[in-house]
Design brief:
This protein is an alpha+beta fold. It is 29% helix and 31% strand. Helix 1 packs across helix 2.
């Protein structure tokens, strides 16, 4: 399927490039220990916060019920929470109000496929509920090329891919990497931070018609 033009926000792209370098640094110091998902979320939280503008605020572990009124998909239980979210402060006649603009889930590339798919379905719920909220899955890979999202030459995998069981699809919009030597022979051992955006099929069709 034809792609639509979507860029990663500058603050997210800057944060993920630095996260890739941070992963490389940690792997050098603790070569026998894999980073936990919690550690990745915590560091990405710090990096995003450092690059956000004044009109945005970063929230952690917000319940999904703040983003969707009613769950369509079983992957979202009552206790499900979004890893990170960015909210915009707007001025209204009755005062200032914060509204969600970005929902971000974080996964290790070596997580079980079922867990990655679960987060894609959860983000599809948000994308289908409100097209003004951009839904991202950030996949972080240590010393491993994540072939679902990255080509053998280290580029983002092009195309729009359906998310099974939903009315949404995803596309890879950014791949940041860190490696000691930027040569093809090292790509299998590089560290990758991929941004995958989830979009409702209705939104995709409207964009392709314009």
């Amino acid at each position: 399927m034809q792609e639509i033009l979507r860029y990663s926000p500058k603050w997210l792209k800057s944060a993920l490039q630095r996260l890739a370098f941070w992963v490389g640094h940690r792997c050098t110091i603790y070569s026998d220990w894999a980073l936990t998902e919690g550690a990745l979320v915590a560091e990405l939280c710090n990096l995003i916060h450092a690059h956000l503008g004044d009109k945005y605020s970063l929230h952690c572990e917000e319940p999904y019920k703040k983003f969707v009124k009613q769950n369509k998909y079983a992957q979202i239980g009552d206790g499900a929470r979004v890893d990170l979210s960015v909210w915009e402060t707007i001025q209204e006649p009755e005062g200032k109000r914060k509204i969600p603009r970005f929902a971000i889930e974080v996964k290790r590339a070596k997580s079980a496929s079922s867990l990655i798919n679960r987060d894609l379905v959860r983000l599809a719920e948000i994308a289908e509920h409100n097209s003004r909220i951009r839904a991202f899955l950030c996949v972080v890979s240590e010393r491993h090329l994540p072939t679902q999202f990255v080509t053998p030459r280290g580029y983002r995998r092009g195309g729009i891919f359906p998310i099974e069981g939903t009315s949404s699809s995803y596309q890879v919009i950014s791949v940041l990497k860190a490696t000691a030597f930027l040569k093809e022979v090292n790509l299998d051992r590089a560290h990758y931070c991929c941004t995958i955006e989830v979009l409702s099929n209705e939104f995709i069709e409207e964009e392709l018609q314009e």
